[in-house]
């Protein structure tokens, strides 16, 4: 396609995340247009398409992908619908940005990996947006430079003011720690081989039945040990931070910054309330990079393999939560497509 | 115009700043396209237009503005050419984003103010991009909230590794301090009434004939006192910071942050090397906001009056440098168009 | 004794630590004098006593304690000599400041506990000097205030530029982690019930045979989980830090501070090279508080029980290093003397 | 005297500052004893001496200095009484630590300088305690190292929560800015040649008649320009900071630090409420260093010349406040005794 023609995108799923991506593509991203949307709820689909020139509304994802002017697909439907949407996109050879998780479990994720491997070329970028955060990018760059020698340990912090109703122990791993799983694999360039979970007496602010906080430990193929403080009802704000300990130095990203205020007997500043504020730039940058790469005819960013490996590590993490013991991560063989 | 049609923009001037804006409009900004470019150097104009679908190249700014599909103008030519370009845009009723300075001196800036006032509506946004920096925006928001009471003083820091060859004392005011002049007026919502300049013994790193650093002091209509450390050959990096002192608290923006590194016996991080890195987001945001407002049919941001008032304060600043005494700023009456 | 008469102190051991305490008592501490010194090496003892009015030199600790004007004892001899020195002090009813470790193992430490318990009153303060560091004191005060609710986790960092020759895995626990063991017990007011040790691939800078860094995990009677990054060959400096995670907030001590420097493209400052610089104030404050309490006729600070409990946790830590599994800490019953 | 005999000190003045010094000498300082006290109020003198072995109480400073066992004098009476006390000490050849100000005005300070110069040796250390603050000491060390080249500018901040009743504009200079005057002279090793004072519209929190805040500017013999934000009713705490701008780098001391807390949607920490907390260590260190030097038979620290030069700069500062113009500092010739 001409690099001057906007990329026509079918957005699958128009709930909270899908609607936000539609807004982004329509008003923030350069070189993209929303060409079609799909949602099981026809009213919601129509509402999402309203006011966007030439954007059609559908209830069937495959129909949206077949709409005129569609060059690529952004999958933002619930996780259980991802495998079908990806299969439809593969049938049409369309590049995809697929929100995380790739699929809800390792078995289905492996099927997607195998399907893409059969195609013989990558079509999918998985939505692990932390890889597009400026701080993490600078940390990655520093580690890759070798300035601090080999990386030995990672210390992650993942704090959230409060969990929504119905949040479970398994969701602590699948929805929250999955980010540290991806960041760990990406920063180190290693696979996670085992997970332990240590559970202190829960906070009084944790909902009944939820073991919050937890200390989640990873072992890697490179022999690194990584710990994550997961604290999802800390009350005071959203904090995501990572310190990488190398042989000759450490580097930390995620300290709050911005305005330094002196008032009321205190120095300091405000903590971002949630991931939307904390990672707004990362979401914008992720989508822009995907659009740019797609217009150039390339696929970059987190792959289906990354989505599968994260799913496998999550399954081990949930087992480790339940048993209190070290749980090994078992991975299938890595297809050549993913190096 | 339809909000779905990209805004067609004529870029006047394709030197360093113009070329960067063309890149931005073409690959970063949402909802815009470069429809025409103009440069006195026809080769440079042709080179700038190359590879952009439907973009025409011109040597005459007015011809570029008359090209098909031009909805708005971005003026990035040298300052002395601005008045003519603005006059041409006014003749066509085209909205303009005009790089600072509005014009090189207060007299010509006042002519532009009067011309726009005669039109009876605003067409021009002046390129004081610091108003679009996240830190300054948060500082402005805090001051406007009244949380710290009335603002009493501002402390500015403006440091640069080195000046280019041929930099003069007057350029210290006109090219560098002009940003503190605009930020002071904007943050406080007051005019600057007088300027003093104190000159320490220059740094050995200052080029012969340049009095660097300097301490530049402003008085305002609101009785505030603002100081600026201007140090353009500090060697160690680019730092722009501002602390606002209110009746009940202070707030500071511009501290370096990002990765915190421990290595080689030191904690800390790197300093941005220049304004491009420091204000990249501000430039992007400035242009996006201008495109968005223009597509909505409105004009926002710094006005011709802001450009004129800055020029008048710069003239006082250069006088104050020369005489060593307090120099009063004299402003013409403010047309109703600018409130 | 009159509160105006200086406290006469016998210093047992005049090696590096003993000599430093003699210097401190002689030139820094208020209300104390060195009345006698003892060292197996008579020349070293004589050298230590030289120039101090009325200070006698001995080779036998008991003789030093029996010297005229001795009101209290500071034990700074090697750990294996502590039990005998404490027994001699108990026989004379003399108050003691005993450098850590109380004794080299839990069995001998328990004998000291039982001997003091038989006396029916405390005589010993153990030299866990971190309890006298300003940062840890403020952290303790905050946790005790309940402002952040119950404490759930502690994150410790313990970094050192390099280990001396001959340093072993067991010494990582007994000489280094012992401080985190004491701080954990003191901050939380709980006993440590189990220790795990996770061992990443060692740094290339670690001497052959030393598994450095390590991640050491504690469980406590209160159900807290505490992690310690122990990294004794990090190269870049000495860093000891602790973050306490409570139900409603976290607090961290140990970030480097002091001068903030901009130079050479970097912001930041220097890292203290070692524990002498980092904890100089804590050593001074520890000794002054001990002298003040002793002159008032009271005993405060870390007790023999604290020394014993640390020894028991160290033994579990060394077991955990060897087995790779969780090692339980087994404590004898706590005598009433220690509440 | 034997270095093992405590230095016997007569404390002149037992008000707030005197009583604090008596406490310090009696319970904190090594190698000193309070041998006599003097106060115009005999009850207050007796109360101050109570409980200190061998300490006698007097109403006449000269009588206190003549008491048995007095080796040195600490003058903490009100400023107008200093000249007489110093004269009495000179008559007896006693070393003196004299609280600032040396005397209340430049004329009387010059008389003291001349009297000491006639003695032909220094007896007096003036109580500019900031020179003993760790942060300022490190800043001084850095500047003296030449690592940042020649110092070009200093930026001082001096903030206080509130002024006591009856505080006047002149006291802003004489009681507050006098510290920046001394620090500027000491850090730079230059004299202050002129003072300007800029006065913004006062804070609503300033008492009627007090122009608070003010911006006070110094010129120096070395051509440096130094600014001080003086804000004595800032409400939020006590902050004293200084940034030195050199040819190749800057360095700042005085940022608050200590515990970093996350709670209630904010990161940061507490601001010290007053100079007692902020400079506690500096007061202790100042007195210890004076006692140590006196026992060695030497006189160090800020001299009578420093006290006189500060008084002369204060007089210029008060003139500059009143006139709004630059006020030159006029100094007498420097006696050889002060190099």
Automatic annotation (TrEMBL), chains A, B, C, D:
GO terms for molecular function: inositol 2-dehydrogenase (NAD+) activity; nucleotide binding. Pfam families: GFO_IDH_MocA, GFO_IDH_MocA_C. Keywords: NAD, Oxidoreductase. GO terms for biological process: inositol catabolic process. Residues 140-326 form the Gfo/Idh/MocA-like oxidoreductase C-terminal domain. Its EC number is 1.1.1.18. It is an enzyme of class 1 (oxidoreductase). Residues 8-128 form the Gfo/Idh/MocA-like oxidoreductase N-terminal domain. Homotetramer. Involved in the oxidation of myo-inositol (MI) to 2-keto-myo-inositol (2KMI or 2-inosose). Belongs to the Gfo/Idh/MocA family. This is Inositol 2-dehydrogenase. The lineage of its organism: Bacteria, Bacillati, Actinomycetota, Actinomycetes, Kitasatosporales.
């Amino acid at each position: 396609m001409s690099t001057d023609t906007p990329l026509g995108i079918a957005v699958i799923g128009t709930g909270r995340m899908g609607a936000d991506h539609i807004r982004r593509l329509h008003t923030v991203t350069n070189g993209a247009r929303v060409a079609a949307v799909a949602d099981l709820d026809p009213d919601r689909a129509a509402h999402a398409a309203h006011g966007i020139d030439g954007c059609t509304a559908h209830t069937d994802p495959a129909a949206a992908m077949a709409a005129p002017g569609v060059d690529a697909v952004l999958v933002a439907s619930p996780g259980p619908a991802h495998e079908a949407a990806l299969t439809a996109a593969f049938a049409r050879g369309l590049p995809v940005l697929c929100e995380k998780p790739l699929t809800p479990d390792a078995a289905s994720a492996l099927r997607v990996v195998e399907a893409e491997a059969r195609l013989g070329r990558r079509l999918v970028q998985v939505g692990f947006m932390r890889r597009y955060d400026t701080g993490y990018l600078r940390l990655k760059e520093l580690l890759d430079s070798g300035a601090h020698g080999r990386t030995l340990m990672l210390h992650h912090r993942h704090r959230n003011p409060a969990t929504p109703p119905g949040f479970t122990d398994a969701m602590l791993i699948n929805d929250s720690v999955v980010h540290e799983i991806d960041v760990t694999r990406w920063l180190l360039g290693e696979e996670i081989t085992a997970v332990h979970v240590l559970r202190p007496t829960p906070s009084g602010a944790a909902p009944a039945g939820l073991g919050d906080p937890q200390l989640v430990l990873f072992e890697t193929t490179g022999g690194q040990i990584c710990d994550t403080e997961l604290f999802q009802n800390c009350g005071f704000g959203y904090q995501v931070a990572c310190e990488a300990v190398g042989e000759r130095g450490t580097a930390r990203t995620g300290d709050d910054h911005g305005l330094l205020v002196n008032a009321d007997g205190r120095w300091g500043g405000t903590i971002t309330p949630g991931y939307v504020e904390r990672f707004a730039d990362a979401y914008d940058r992720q989508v822009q990079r995907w659009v740019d790469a797609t217009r150039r005819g390339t696929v970059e960013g987190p792959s289906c393999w990354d989505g599968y490996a994260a799913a496998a590590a999550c399954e081990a993490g949930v087992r480790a939560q339940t048993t209190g013991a070290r749980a090994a991560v078992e991975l299938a063989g890595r297809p050549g497509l993913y190096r």
